[in-house]
Write a structure and sequence with these properties.
2 copies of one chain form a homodimer. Chain A has one domain: NADH Oxidase (3-Layer(aba) Sandwich), CATH 3.40.109. Chain A is 36% helix and 18% strand. Chain A is built from 6 helices and 5 strands; from the N terminus they run ααβααβαβαββ. The first copy, chain A, has a 4-stranded antiparallel β-sheet with strand order 1-2-4-3. At the A-B interface, helix 1, helix 2, strand 1, helix 5 and strand 4 of A face helix 1, helix 2, strand 1, helix 5 and strand 4 of B.
């Protein structure tokens, strides 16, 4: 049992995992605990897709790389272009060979979808850290355009992925990146 | 010192506060701890505005009510219309007479602003709960259109408020609202 202070130190973005699989009941327990997050008007707009099949994860990684490179090609000025070289590297799996990927998604027309799912993602990352697991929000992993692979993972046209979260047992835990001083625009006292 | 399990139970949305003020150093400590949240490409795009002046908070509440009612007037079909009666109630302070309001904001053009600030807000709500404080994300509180009041609180035109978080000592802590079963669209194993 960790104190919150310990969890704050422990919760790092992990991109280096042991081979070890995570049991499905454990993933479901973490998802259930994550739904204790607050949401706008208690709307709970979140849906989940759990992927533990490494072949499917590899294909999802390839599909995201393809669709992201197409976007960069169409518009080389976008900030994404900084990732071009990594995305062109065929050996690079954007999910870092994690044993599990959870997509947090929802109906694309829900106004508060982004913030609600991000709150839930934060709970999920703490809940996993609490159990000795490591996570990373893989922003690049949301770009699944191909209708066939969307169908295969149960992602309908009306759904939008907000947070692709990889989960696994950390092989190493990096030091925290330094934080900037909080930018306080004004104190109105 | 609370365990994470205890914090999960303790972190409720609080709308009923003691009169007691919160010290500015304590608010700043919570803000600093919140910046341990992860952000896209470690961008840390968050800015903060701290408001502890109750007159200013009352005027911000009035401004949000005015601008929200104008939106409802212009488009009665929007979901916001459910709040019409409350917003017309002159006795209703949308910030529930909390002693402190923290605006989490950022440059409107930052692509990941919503999710980054929501992750930070989640950290802030845990960090406050850890110190015996209560919080609530007041979605209605972000709608500050009036240029004069924006200037007064240091909110420039390029800034967008993502999360208005009220903070105070809870006068009462409500029971958790029941959660739906997690909607798992598919398990790909």
């Amino acid at each position: 049992m960790n104190s919150f202070e310990e969890l704050l130190k422990k919760r790092r973005s992990i991109r280096d995992f042991e081979e070890r699989e995570i049991s499905l009941p454990l993933i479901q327990e973490i998802i259930r605990e994550s739904t204790l997050a607050p949401s706008a008007s208690h709307g709970q707009p979140w849906y989940f897709i759990i992927i533990t099949n490494r072949d499917v994860m590899k294909r999802l990684s390839d599909e995201c790389k393809r669709s992201l490179l197409a976007r960069i090609e169409a518009n080389p000025e976008i900030p994404l272009s900084g990732y071009k070289e990594a995305l062109q590297n065929t050996g690079f799996n954007i999910f870092y060979n994690a044993p599990c990927l959870v997509y947090i998604a929802g109906h694309a027309e829900t106004g508060s979808l982004d913030v609600d799912c991000a709150l839930l993602a934060s709970y999920m990352m703490f809940s996993a850290a609490q159990r000795g697991l490591g996570t990373c929000w893989i922003g690049l992993g949301a770009h699944i355009d191909d209708p066939e692979i969307r169908r295969e993972i149960g992602l309908s046209d009306v759904c939008r992925i907000v947070a692709p979260i990889i989960i696994g047992y950390p092989a190493s835990i990096p030091e925290p990146l330094p934080r900037e001083e909080p930018k306080i625009l004004k104190i109105v006292s």
